[in-house]
Design brief:
Elements: E1 2-6, H1 13-22, E2 26-31, E3 41-44, H2 50-59, E4 64-67, H3 79-99, E5 104-110, E6 123-124, H4 137-156, E7 159-165, E8 168-169, H5 171-183, E9 196-197, H6 198-210, E10 217-221, H7 232-240, E11 245-246, H8 259-265
Helix pairs in contact: 1-6, 2-3, 3-4
């Protein structure tokens, strides 16, 4: 399959490109700058320029898109650019796919739409029906992109899966973050004491692109369990209080529910990180 990966030079993107190429797909990385040594093709693309986007899709004869390209968080550029560029890029890509009859899109959203950095979850585990509470320009842009995705799903029949990634890190970053979190467990609350290996995020993108009949809509994507050696319910009670509604939080399972992704396209994290179980990159 011919697949365009926007933002393929980024933290998640480089792993997505490698995973798709290893699986036999023809992959083109559409980014502002290449990533040295990355397999597949490369096109320098500004996602806010419709001409760039249409030409990239047409030139590569893309059959599916993994859309990761964006300013990666608030504070990288001024908020007006974070929001404006990220929303414009997503809408432009969706419109181009609709016009060129490219139906399958994986769209990178974020668990930041839930607003855990400023407030405890409304209930646990957090499923995709949890209310939006964006607390920065990046999260607000992700909400807007999901709304745009729904428009293209309904009006043009696109199949768009919006992945609400949480705590994605490259393998060489995770051990240090676990050590810091173990020293100060409160610091882990905004990502629900969970980390996602970028290789698992890449696997989720590939599985979703390759699967057939997957319903459009949002999907939580994160690691399988809390990384600390404390049951999730204990961490929640200590740091969020005993009054939080618990709908079924078992053992060390992540408080972000990924069962929808597991049922829809078989997402199951392979790299389960804890204080004692680690998976450095070979």
């Amino acid at each position: 399959m011919n697949i365009l990966v926007t933002g393929g030079s980024g933290r998640i993107g480089r792993y997505v490109v490698r995973d798709l190429v290893a699986a036999g797909h023809t992959v083109t990385n559409a980014d502002l700058a290449p990533s040295p040594g990355l397999p597949g093709g490369f096109l320098r693309v500004d996602l806010t320029d419709p001409g760039d986007v249409y030409q990239a899709l047409a030139y590569t004869k893309s059959q599916a898109v993994v859309h990761l390209g964006a300013w990666a968080n608030a504070g990288v550029v001024p908020d007006t650019r974070t929001y404006g560029d990220n929303v414009r890029g997503a809408f432009t890509l969706f419109q181009a796919c609709a016009d060129l009859n490219i139906k399958r899109i994986v769209n990178a959203s974020s668990a930041q739409v839930y607003g855990f950095a400023q407030a405890a979850p409304s209930y646990l585990p957090v499923d995709e029906d949890h209310p939006f509470r964006p607390c920065n320009s990046y999260a607000a842009a992700k909400v807007a992109a999901e709304v745009a995705a729904e428009y293209f799903i309904q009006q043009f029949g696109l199949n768009i899966l919006s992945f609400r990634f949480m705590g994605v890190r490259m393998p060489n970053e995770i051990a240090g973050e676990i050590e810091a979190m173990a020293a100060d467990p409160a610091s882990g609350s905004w990502l629900l004491w969970t980390r996602t290996d970028a290789r698992d995020a890449a696997q989720a993108c590939r599985l979703a692109v390759e699967a057939t009949g997957v319903p459009s809509g949002p999907y939580n994507i994160t690691g399988a369990r809390v990384v600390l050696d404390h049951p999730a319910a204990e961490l929640v009670a200590t740091h969020f209080g005993a009054d939080l509604e618990i709908r079924g939080l078992d053992g060390y399972n992540s408080p972000l529910d990924c069962s929808r992704a597991q049922q829809a396209f078989g997402y199951q994290p392979r790299y389960v990180w804890t204080q004692t179980q680690q998976h450095p990159e070979a």
